[in-house]
TrEMBL record:
Keywords: Hydrolase
The Nudix hydrolase domain, residue ranges: 35-165
Designated name of the protein: NUDIX domain-containing protein
InterPro entries, per the entry: Nudix_hydrolase, NUDIX_hydrolase-like_dom_sf, NUDIX_hydrolase_CS, NUDIX_hydrolase_dom
Pfam families associated with the record: NUDIX (PF00293)
CDD domains for this protein: NUDIX_Hydrolase
PROSITE patterns the UniProt entry points to: NUDIX, NUDIX_BOX
SUPFAM superfamilies in UniProt: Nudix
Family of this protein: Belongs to the Nudix hydrolase family.
Length: 169
């Protein structure tokens, strides 16, 4: 989204000419500076009782038809762990346990999309019936070594970290 006007006074934004914010669009009267801050997301690698991991196929853009993990954007005021628990339940009907952060990466939400900071979790899911939300079209429980290539770079980096960690143990 391109910001062109100050939200406080409606003056057209102009680039700051000097200092640490040089180049950023700002109100000439000093009310507002636009920072392109990333959105925060959370996603999880969930293991079942037999050691397989849950993969979900996306039903919408970006990356429609590609595999990824349960997850989504952190809402304002929400803790990332609350986010991942909410997203797991919304997308699958499951309830995760033993969730632990094992990494964070920067990414983009689709080609040329919004920059993100992506927090990766690892956890367990008890056996149960999966009820997919309209956001997902398919699921599979797979061995980590056979996990399909995830849609987003942060998920791919997290998968690589899990695989490397597993090889060391």
């Amino acid at each position: 989204m391109e910001f062109r006007y100050c939200p406080a006074c409606a003056e057209e934004l102009r680039p700051i000419t000097d200092g640490h914010d040089a180049g950023l669009p700002a109100c000439p009267d000093g009310h507002y500076v636009h920072y392109e801050n990333p959105a925060v997301t959370a996603f999880a690698f969930l293991r079942d009782g037999s050691g397989r991991y849950l993969a979900l196929r996306r039903a919408h853009a970006p990356a429609s038809g590609e595999w990824d993990l349960p997850g989504g954007f952190v809402d304002a005021g929400e803790y990332p762990e609350e986010t991942i628990r909410r997203e797991i339940t919304e997308e699958t009907g499951l309830h995760a346990s033993d969730l632990e952060v094992f990494g964070a990466w920067t990414g983009r939400y689709g080609p040329g999309g919004k920059w993100t900071v992506d927090i990766a979790y690892h956890g367990h899911c008890p056996d149960g019936e999966i009820v997919l939300s309209p956001e997902k079209s398919e699921f599979a429980w797979v061995e980590l070594e056979d996990f399909p290539t995830p849609a987003f770079n942060s998920e791919r980096l997290a998968l690589r970290k899990l695989l490397t960690k597993r090889m060391k143990t």
